[in-house]
Amino acid sequence: MTAIVTDPDGIDDLIGGQLLHADGSGTYGAFATAAQEGAYQISVPFNAVADVVELEGFTPLEAELVAEFFDQAGNAVQASVFVELVCGSGLACSNDNRCMAADNECSPLLDGSCPGEERCNYNDSQHHYRCNNYLGTGTQGDDCPSTLECADGFACRFGSCAQWCDLDAPVCPSGTMCIPTPSGQGEICGNEGNCG
């Protein structure tokens, strides 16, 4: 979210701002200044909003978010924006307001779909995703004997960590593309000669 803010006493009079839930039940964080003077930005992951707003199953929910900005004299101004919160296609909200695949415990494509420091990993023996506490650090192309060595959001395929991706909205590192795994576990970033 980006906010363009002005002040009658000049742009240097602004101190900063924060993003709040309208009912006062939570703060999502502080706006950061952007390159343009008077422009402020904040990025809030879906599950951070879900920590404040209760979601139910596949039902969309409209949430009012409030941007509040302050100047040096302590004056404040607020503006509201309404956003619709819904877990993506094929995803449902868990009992702790996390988006996850409807038939799995978590989704490797969603930050925060596992509690605390756990990460989402494909469980080969049970054929679905599960949260676990294996916190590897490997990213795209790093060597790995198993998925345990790869960071959250990555899987070990053919001895290298590969980022999970979504064919409908692919985001992959340069030089790779989103390809389906032959086993049907999902999609990973790779090249056509190394799929799966």
Q: How would you describe this structure to a colleague?
A:
Helices cover 3% and strands 38% of the residues. It has 196 residues and is mainly beta. The protein folds into two domains: 84 residues, Immunoglobulin-like; 100 residues, no CATH class. The strands form five sheets. A four-stranded antiparallel beta sheet has the order 3-2-6-7. The relative contact order is 0.11.
Protein topology:
Elements: E1 2-4, E2 14-21, E3 27-30, E4 32-33, E5 39-41, H1 46-50, E6 61-71, E7 76-85, E8 91-93, E9 99-101, E10 119-123, E11 128-132, E12 154-157, E13 160-165, E14 177-180, E15 187-190
Antiparallel strand pairs: 1-5, 2-3, 2-6, 4-5, 6-7, 8-9, 10-11, 12-13, 13-15, 14-15
Average pLDDT works out at 76
How would you spell out the order of helices and strands?
EEEEEHEEEEEEEEEE
Alpha plus pi helix count: 1
* Secondary structure: helix percent: under 10%
Number of domains: 2
Low-confidence stretches: none
> What structural class should be given to the helix and strand makeup?
mainly beta
- How many strands, which pairing sense, and closed or not: the largest β-sheet? 4 strands, antiparallel
* Counted beta strands: 15
Silhouette: elongated
Question: What is the alpha-carbon Rg in Å?
Answer: 20 Å
Strand order of the largest sheet: 3-2-6-7
- Beta-strand portion reads 35-45%
Based on the model shown, name its key terms.
196 residues, mainly beta, Immunoglobulin-like, 4-stranded antiparallel β-sheet, 1 helix
